[in-house]
Amino acid sequence: MARVDLHGLTQDAEVFGSTISGRIAPQLGSTDDPTAAGRAFANVIMNLTGGERPFFREGYEGSYGFNFAVLVNAVGNAGPSNAAAQNVEPDRAGLRLFARFRALRQRAALRAQDTQASNDPRERRLFLFRNRY
Hints:
The chain is mainly α. It contains 6 helices and no strands.
């Protein structure tokens, strides 16, 4: 919307942040007085997040600056969000650890459900078949 290429700037959080505050924010305007690009940006955000709805404007205005800060933070900190912001291959070891942790949590939740399952062996086998872990 602001016609600023950010792709090459995603290696340095300071340059990225100053570009957002110095070039992008002025072209979008404020939430109270948006430019044409700012109105188009708000429309895109509204439609990407569920379409027209009550209180969209209040939520948009409340999180407007915060969302840009999240982008700058993603560029400045190591991790999956940084890799996504920089469009680079993330650290596979970190992603494997995250996937393993998520699988363990899912298994623990299924085991908790299993203890609440019926004592009928047929229902237990059906439960275990549906929730293979």
